[in-house]
Amino acid sequence: MTDPARSVSSFSATLAGVDGCRAGWIAAVGDAGMSTIRLVVGTSLASLVEQHPEVTLWAIDMPVDLPAGKPQDEGLRDCDAAARTRLGWPRSSSVFSAPPKPVLAAQSYEEACELSVALSGQKLSVQAWNLVPKVREVQALLVERPELVGRLFETHPELCFAQMNGGKGIEASKKTPEGRATRLRLLSAEFGQAAIRRAMASTKGIKQVANDDKIDALAALSAARRHRDGQTRQVPGNAPPESPRIVY
Questions:
Q1: What ranges does the record give for the region Disordered, renumbered to this chain (predicted)?
Q2: Domain assignment of residue 193, yes or no
Q3: Which residues of the chain have pLDDT under 50?
Q4: Domain that holds residue 161
């Protein structure tokens, strides 16, 4: 089976925003001036990176820096709590607590919960457990490609949308027509309506990629551009350099 990422002709993409999807991963890749934005799909995160060696910054909607767990730390990340506070209800529910790193070795949800309780005092949510395979990929990629450390950073689409929305989290869920329309409007204001329309159509015919995945990847791309331009924010705002943070 040919990786979908290989079916897209290359262009000079320098920035990327990435989200997980049922097909694997989806990336919004853009050139320096964002005159061209495409959505590309890869069965693995490594395949996306391999196909776009010119990309200097990868903003990814996935935990990157994980807590070690007790006794080294509390097993919970301040950035997750800060993101929920920043977004407010109801979008705070979109931020799941990242698992302590040893949880990635668990072979079942039950085992993951036992480890999580021991390391953080909390069970792992079902949503977080469903993300574990993707988090494993991120960790493996950073080991295999250490040059990506710092260039591949964590973001969260809802924080990006709040930044585009005057600092306010979007009340309507992305699963609703109203929520999707609001997010597409904000993306159009960020990148241009024509660019977003073309990008949304660029994965037409590729299965297991939802419109929500496309929209989230495009939001992550906005974080990559702001990071390049020195305009990003982060939670927590006062996080020391060695602490996990979410950039938006």
A1: 224-248
A2: yes
A3: 1-2, 4-9
A4: 4-63+150-235
Structurally, the chain folds into a number of domains equal to 1
What pLDDT does residue 8 have? 45
The pLDDT score that the predictor gives to residue 4 is 47
pLDDT of res. 3:
52
Q: How many other C-beta atoms are found inside a 10 Å radius of the C-beta of residue 104? A: 17
Provide the pLDDT for residue 2.
Answer: 44
CATH number for the domain including 26? 3.30.420
Asked if residue 37 is part of any domain, the answer here is yes
